[in-house]
Specification:
Blueprint: H1 4-9, E1 15-17, H2 26-34, E2 39-42, H3 48-61, E3 66-71, H4 77-86, E4 91-95, H5 100-108, E5 112-117, H6 120-128, E6 134-137, E7 143-144, H7 150-160, E8 165-168, H8 174-182, E9 187-190, H9 192-195, H10 204-211, E10 218-221, E11 229-232, H11 235-245, H12 250-257, H13 260-267, H14 290-305
Parallel strand pairs: 1-9, 2-3, 3-4, 4-5, 5-6, 6-8, 8-9
Antiparallel strand pairs: 7-11, 10-11
Helix pairs in contact: 2-3, 3-4, 8-14
């Protein structure tokens, strides 16, 4: 299944792994790239030197291309933006903001820049400033979300820009890939399903919580302060919702979630931690290798698309 994205990124399959904080480290990124997709190392809030080390470790595991996701709200974003240039990374995706201030530097270094967008307006702006493609991410995804669904956002972005569009949000099997292509996307970005891959270095509790999730198990917190986040329901989300309903400040609510994602991913605290996962979690039933996942999804998608 060749598209402008597979040609642009030098990958075999039009599948990109999401740059999930505390999850998307070098083992996962290398495994996805080895399987023919594009793996990403998630910058999250990590310092630049940590990302440099992750990049170098990733190269010990694969000689295939992988990228880095730069989380623009991170206090270390400036340093990470320079590290990807210094380390010769060829693909950068960005989230939680506008990457315009880094675009000239990245483009001069020959980096393919692919911002994640949640609106047509931002997609058009990113095209204007030289983005090579955009990820149109619907609110079905895990983590920080916008308001539009993938089904409505993707075709509107496809119609609005000339650059290739990658669909994200609620995609975790071949049916989702086929649907995204019917909407005009030329690749997909998948996060939650890769969390339960055998190569993902996350706590078994976290994986099992996703595997056991039902269709109604996700919740969105933070809407009252304009920072909505989708995760799986637990003790933490119930407490957050209670405080949010009481009108607590953004700072008070942020304090509640301080370190919560790390506790869930690394320590297995799936009750008091933040279990970021998209609504696709209800369709995930088992742990597989990245190779098995990608081959299974692509076989199903190709059959549906004929």
């Amino acid at each position: 299944m060749k598209t402008r994205i597979t040609e642009l990124l030098g990958i075999s399959y039009p599948i990109i792994q999401g740059g999930m904080a505390w999850v998307a480290e070098h083992h996962l990124a290398a495994a996805v790239s080895e399987a023919g997709g594009l793996g990403l190392i998630g910058g999250a809030n990590a310092p630049g030197e940590v990302i440099r080390e992750e990049i170098r470790r990733g190269r010990e595991l694969t000689d295939k291309p992988f990228g880095v996701n730069v989380m623009l709200m991170s206090p270390h974003a400036d340093d990470v933006a320079k590290v990807v240039v210094e380390e010769g990374i060829k693909v950068v995706t960005t989230g939680a903001g506008n990457p315009e201030k880094y675009m000239d530097m990245w483009k001069a270094a020959g980096i393919k820049v692919i911002p994640v967008v949640a609106s047509v307006a931002l997609a058009r702006r990113m095209e204007k400033y030289g983005a090579d493609a955009v990820v149109a991410e619907g609110c079905e995804s895990g983590g920080h979300i916008g308001e539009q669904t993938t089904m409505t956002l993707v075709p509107q972005v496809v119609d609005a820009v000339e650059i290739p569009v990658i669909a994200a949000g609620g995609i975790g099997d071949g049916r989702g890939i086929a649907a995204a292509f019917m909407l005009g996307a030329e690749a997909v970005q998948i996060g939650t399903r890769f969390v339960v891959s055998k190569e993902a270095v996350v706590h078994e509790n976290y994986k099992q919580r996703i595997i056991k999730a039902k269709d109604i198990d996700s919740a969105v917190t933070g809407r009252s302060h304009g920072h909505p986040v989708r995760c799986l329901r637990n003790q933490m989300t119930r407490e957050y919702a209670k405080l949010e309903a009481e009108g607590k400040s953004f700072e008070e609510l942020e304090y509640l979630t301080l370190g919560a994602l790390r506790r869930a991913v690394q320590e297995g605290d799936v009750a008091g931690g933040t279990v970021m996962a998209g609504q696709i979690a209800g369709l995930i039933s088992k742990e597989q290798t990245c190779q098995e996942m990608i081959e299974e999804m692509m076989a199903q998608a190709e059959k549906l698309l004929g």
